[in-house]
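#dry-run=false #mode=assembly
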Amino acid sequence: MNGFSSGSVRRPRVQAPEATQLPETPSQTVGPFLAIGLPWPEGPLVVPDGTPGAFWIRGDVRDGGGEVVQDALVETWQADPDGRFGGTFRGFGRCPTDERGRYAIHTRKPGPVPAPAGGFQAPHIDVSVFARGLLQRVVTRIYFADEPANAADPILASVPEDRRTTLVAERDGDGYHFDIRLQGPDETVFFDL
Amino acid sequence: MSVHPPLLSPAYKSTVLRAPRREPIPLPHTLTELTGPALGEGLVIAGDADLTAANGGEAQGQRIIVHGRVLDSGGRPVPDALVEVWQANAGGRYRHSVDRHDAPLDPHFAGGGRVLTGPDGEYRFVTVKPGAYPWGNHPNAWRPAHIHFSVFGHAFTQRLVTQMYFPGDPLFRYDPIFNAVPDDRGRRRLIADFDLSATVEAWALGFQWDIVLRGREATPMETP
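#status=ok
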């Protein structure tokens, strides 16, 4: 359990629908003790330390009362800088929040990924948040404030304009800043997958 | 109706300030959602499937084998899926600084483990039956015995964190987390079956529990 495989990404294969339909296993909360099972030493490192062009995305997770969430887990999944999934690019990050609700992910900016109706999406990272009190994960996306492509991104366009900023990481020091608000006036936009 | 518990389930008090209140926005499944990480070799070592042999000794409690398959909702096995587990020890105590339950820690119980599923989606752990565990949700609240499971399928859409329970637990009716699952059939899918065929004579009891992930909807976005 020291590191990650740097093997290829898995890509779903197209298969004919089958008659078998099994009901899904219901989700349950990750609970307060996820730190026993889930953190990995290299979890926050989507790319290794010292990778050219890498930066940190940092932020905190807060609840509807403005309190920091000290027992959340933030997971990220993204394309490589050329917009591809696979190869030697891990693409995946995982970081538990600390006593101040903070997480940090070390990565590179993903490249363009095809959009549903043709063209490309703006660079984005898919995010899952797990915590005590969340009976399912919640899913959001990180976009980047310095990307002109945001203006034409169809997913961002589907979000009411006054809430889009909750999906946009701002430049900050050696990277970007992205807070997650589970509830309240600044509630982060969460997606239904 | 979703098989999953609603995020806002007020009987489980921690949901009240943590469940988002706004309607989630539909996210089309693009390549980012239809792909997923390959989390495999290097992350899992052989001993990670046995939680009963930490620090050179044997864990206290009822030794059990928990096995099953990871499938998708189309009935297809999910091979090479990372399955991570963590649980309380036989006395109902977690190996975690936040756990103040007055039950003994067990130096020989590992607390957590991980495996990759085999070619047919199969997995197997050796552990001890976790004890019931008191918590502060309401007066005299006890969680039924459970094992936490975290599973990665092959796509971002196939990520599941859940809990496995044991058959016949008298605490089911009092537990707001278990009962947040909206229907009885869904709740039953969280309960393992006792499995005599997996029991090892004079050594460990067997339990069988299959995990069904969401299917992978085919879309034109799959081929870049």
